Amino acid sequence: MTAETRPPRTAAAGGPGAAAGDPAVPGLAHARARATGPLPLGADEPAPPGMARLSHGDGTGFALPAWPDGATPSLLEEYHTAPVHVERSGETRRVLAAALKCCWRDLAADPWPGAPAPVDDVLAAYRALIGRGDDLMRNWAVGALRRLHDSAWLVVGDGLVRLGPRCASWPAGSHAQLRELMRRLPAPGEEAAGLDVLPAAGRAEGAASVTVPEEVDEDLLGPLDERRRAEVVAAFMAVEHAAEPVHEARFPALRDPVLRRVLAELLQRRGRVLVQGRETWTSGYADGTASGTGGGTGGGPGAGTVPDEAGRAVLALVLVHSVAIPRAEGLLPADSWLSPFPTQVEELRRHTMLPIGELEAALRSLRHAGLVSQVKAGEEAGGYVPGPQFHRLTGPARRRLQEELILAAGPHTPLAAAVRARRR
């Protein structure tokens, strides 16, 4: 099981040539890009349909999904809909702004690819921006650099920071506002101490270009009038990028069967499907897409990269204590994977046998992926519950996960034997 909206760095997607995927699986390249980040392309390899090509000087590059009508997740603000949560979002935005200040030296050009800047300069720009330079702020900035690196907004390595491929997704219409922001940001101040705790490796800069596909999904959106077209695009961004399922009353395209069919076709091209709740909607991976995206159980968070062994063990414990046990006691509906019953950290320490450092790293990774959420109980940490990605499970994926939980929680029970017999 994996994150849908916070992908790890692009290396996870495989080497050049992995972008096109299996043509027999609709939307596989888009599903891969959502699960693992921008897709690496070999020299002169074209981007899959509906994806922009970011080219380096040597002909290699990345494929980045293009959204319909050039919309971005910022559209959610117009509908007062919360986007997917980013851990320490304030620090993350400020560190990205500091990196942009240091790397975007020619404001007459587009931001990406920019020029590499020393990590020290980026941290100095961050200090100048917030007016503080204490150790706590520095640690938060280092954590933000890691998150931005993992999600391909930045590439950090060898003591340098470069703008990542996702920076090329900023629409041209926003560049003027970004330029004005850069002019207003303070320049880096005094030098900061060097860092040796960030990811390694990087790429030398060279001539670069961005090729954006024309008329993305125009065959589906073209027949619609301006109002209905905007409604479909808004619903698309909402189900794909909102933190929680959205109510159909707020998005006309979710209520109208004709527009909902157009929306479903837009999602299908990206390896996605609509997932319906009680008058609410979200999106998830299409069943069968997961087998082509690098692992998982198919559908929902299963499509994409898989947590490591420690992460899987911790997630299984959270599901057992927050879902399976309350469900067995009649406190949760049979089909629910969200729970108000947190798993205490002490419980995880007792049953995982992981060193505390590995346990904290696994929990951090699962939080970043949206697979667990930390809840509070007054002033104390209340523990962990399944995260918002579980909203995106399709019906078949929920049933498969239920079977996996039975096998994990009671491998020698008659119910587990029945599951194994049915799978033979």
TrEMBL record:
Highest taxon, organism lineage: Bacteria
Origin species: Planomonospora venezuelensis
Biased composition regions of type Gly residues, renumbered to the chain: 291-303
UniProt keyword list: DNA-binding
An annotated Gene Ontology molecular function: DNA binding
Protein name: DNA-binding transcriptional ArsR family regulator
Region (Disordered): 1-25, 283-306
